[in-house]
Specification:
Length: about 290
C-alpha cells in the first residue's frame, strides 16, 4: 500500500531560523500517527506543509500521491484542523454546514448534521458564542465531513479543559473506528496518543529523532539502571542517560542487554520513550527499520 505521506530532506526556514531541518519520513497509509515534540520543534510547520498551507524552503514532500495544495482535487483529499480549531465566529453552526457543502465535493451533510445533533449543537447557534470544546467539535465535524483520505490535527485539544479534551478524543476515536482513512495527530498529551496511535514520530530541535510503529519502538527501547558505568560499551544506541551518585540510568535503543545481576532492565512506556527523546541530553537517533 502506498504511503500517505513521504518527505525527503524537507526543510523550512524563516530568515535565519530553521523551523524544520532535513526531515525524511514515511507515513504508512491507514494508520493513526502521533506527532510529538517540545514547543518549537517543528511539528506545526511539518503539518502545515503537509496540508498545503505553507511551502517548504527545500526538500520534497508527497501527500497521497501529489503535491500538497496543488489543486482542488488534492485539497479535497486532506482535512486540516489547526491549533486554534478555527471556526467563523460570526456564522451559525448551520452556516458552517452550508459553507462546507458548497466548498467540498465529497461533503457528507447527513453525517455532519447527525454528529452535531449528538453533541447537542444547534444549527442556529453562532460559533462565536460556543465554548472552546464546542468550537473544537465543530471544527472536527467540518473536517471529517469532507470525507478526507488524510485528517491532520495540530494539537486540537491544547486549549481545552480535561472534560472537553476527553469528549473530543472520544469523538475522534469514534470517527477512526467507523471510517477508513489516515490520521496525523499532534499532541503534548501522550496519554491521548496511547489510546489511538499506531505509529509515532518524535521531533526535537527541528529534526526527526524517532519514527516507527509504536509496538516496534517500545520493543526496541530499554531502561538500564544500576551502578555507575561507562556507557560506551553498552549495546545499541544510548538515547539518554543520567547519573546520580554511584547510580546510572540509561535509555538504550536496540536489543535488550545481556542479563546482569547488577543491573535492572525495564521496558519503557510510551511516555517514558517520548520524554527520553525530548530530554535536553537526548542524542540523535536513526529511524526504526
Amino acid at each position: 500500500m502506498k504511503p500517505v505521506l513521504t518527505t525527503r530532506g524537507l526543510t523550512r526556514r524563516y530568515g535565519r531560523r530553521t523551523a524544520l531541518s532535513d526531515c525524511t519520513i514515511t507515513v504508512p497509509s491507514g494508520k493513526v500517527v502521533g506527532l510529538v515534540g517540545p514547543n518549537g520543534a517543528g511539528k506545526s510547520t511539518l503539518l502545515r506543509i503537509a496540508a498545503g498551507a505553507l511551502p517548504p524552503t527545500a526538500g520534497e514532500i508527497e501527500v497521497l500521491g501529489g503535491r500538497p495544495g496543488s489543486g482542488p482535487g488534492q485539497l479535497a483529499k486532506v482535512a486540516f484542523v489547526a491549533q486554534d480549531t478555527p471556526v467563523y465566529a460570526g456564522l451559525t453552526v448551520g452556516d458552517h454546514l452550508r459553507f462546507g457543502a458548497k466548498t467540498n465535493p465529497r461533503w457528507d451533510d447527513a453525517m455532519a448534521r447527525e454528529r452535531l445533533k449528538s453533541l447537542g449543537l444547534k444549527l442556529d447557534q453562532r460559533a462565536g458564542r460556543l465554548s472552546g470544546g464546542q468550537r473544537a467539535q465543530l471544527a472536527l465535524t467540518m473536517a471529517v465531513a469532507k470525507r478526507p483520505e488524510l485528517l491532520i490535527l495540530d494539537e486540537p485539544v491544547a486549549a481545552l479543559d480535561p472534560l472537553a479534551r476527553r469528549e473530543f478524543m472520544q469523538g475522534l476515536m469514534a470517527h477512526i473506528a467507523e471510517h477508513e482513512g489516515s490520521v496525523i495527530l499532534s499532541s503534548h498529551v501522550v496519554s491521548d496518543l496511547e489510546r489511538v496511535c499506531d505509529h509515532l514520530i518524535v521531533l526535537v530541535d527541528s529534526r526527526v529523532r524517532a519514527d516507527g510503529e509504536v509496538e516496534d519502538l517500545l520493543a526496541g527501547h530499554h531502561r538500564l539502571t544500576g551502578p555507575r558505568r561507562d556507557t560506551a560499551d553498552l549495546p545499541g544506541d544510548v538515547i539518554a542517560e543520567s547519573h546520580v551518585g554511584r547510580q546510572s540510568t540509561v535509555i538504550l535503543r536496540g536489543p535488550a542487554p545481556e542479563p546482569d545481576p547488577a543491573y535492572e532492565v525495564e521496558k519503557l512506556s510510551l511516555e517514558d520513550l517520548v520524554l527520553a527523546y525530548m530530554s535536553s541530553d537526548a542524542r540523535p537517533a536513526l529511524e526504526m527499520a
